[in-house]
Design brief:
Two copies of one chain form a homodimer.
Chain A lengths: L25 H22 L6 H12 L5 H8 L3 H13 L3 E5 L7 E5 L1 H21 L5 H19 L2
Antiparallel strand pairs in A: 1-2
Chain B binds a DNA duplex (23 and 23 nucleotides) through α4.
Chain lengths: 162, 162
DNA sequence: TATTGTTATACTCTATAACTATA
DNA sequence: TATAGTTATAGAGTATAACAATA
């Protein structure tokens, strides 16, 4: 006995819509959760007067943990095209967070690294991300959070092997 | 004892990078899972000779289940701006899947509905989505899939309440 | 005055193709 | 020949601001 999706008299209120099969879809739940999490990430950084996207954070961590990384290797790790990476690196470099060094062994590649300012900024960003994570996992027990991360990894592994 | 992230001699292979704290982050796991799921969705539709994004599928389902919906109500349900919705509807209408009817009660609004072709197409799309869902949940038991959807909903509810 | 839909505009993410330098 | 990085270009998704029609 579902309530009438659109009352004959007026307009349906937001959040009152019939979503049909969508609520049972893993992909749909994933999309909606990610959208909410993205919004919380953005709001966390905006409130702190910082500007960063989740993708930029991931990129900075990868560069910090894998110093000397080439752009190709980074693009592969991020699963994006090498041409897509160029403007992203340009922006982070313009902000003084990241440098392209010349590789001593291969004239074609750039060795990526954080600047000292980038290291300092990443430390600040990491604190914000931890607060953000705490907030989005607030409705879950520690065991549930662990389980969720594990299940997400299984999904990725399964869907990844096309 | 982690293996060295970047061997001193050469370039790190893809997938062999040190991801540091990222692997413990819920937001990161969510992003990666969603990316893999999106790729499987796209590949499923491409192989079937159909062109549709997950967002378009969700939109079509909402319109089908809530006939006469206005653009404002739909935009709210999708959590996007009303101006963002316009070119998306234009495209679906140009494909003959959807119509904007005049509202009999409010001259400002459009009453959205699927065309007969849209209904037929949605039935095809739904079959493809079900096959896609089966594939991305292949590594999970039925109980795990249920639990995952439930946990994702908890995350969304928690992060949604900013 | 407020709401709905549209347009103009801009920014980001994404990709493909072609170019340059290097291997 | 093949690879790395860049540029040019294009398409989709997102937003804000301003406008016309309607309430």
């Amino acid at each position: 006995m579902a309530s009438p999706p659109v009352p004959p008299n007026g307009k349906p209120r937001a959040g009152n819509l019939d979503r049909g099969m969508l609520t049972a879809l893993l992909g749909y739940g994933l999309r909606r959760a990610q959208s909410a999490v993205f919004a919380d990430f953005a709001s966390t950084f905006a409130k702190a007067g910082e500007a960063l996207t989740p993708g930029e954070f991931g990129l900075l961590v990868l560069v910090e943990r894998n110093k000397g990384l080439s752009q190709m290797a980074l693009a592969r790790a991020l699963a994006i095209d090498r041409s897509t990476l160029v403007p992203i690196l340009n922006r982070l470099q313009a902000r003084g967070l990241l440098m392209r060094h010349a590789s001593p062994t291969d004239g074609r590649t750039h060795a990526l690294a954080l600047t000292p300012e980038g290291e300092k900024a990443l430390a600040r960003f990491t604190r914000l991300v931890k607060a953000h994570e705490k907030r989005i996992a607030a409705g879950l027990s520690a065991a549930e959070t662990r389980m969720l991360i594990e299940l997400l990894d299984k999904v990725r592994a399964g869907a990844g092997s096309l």
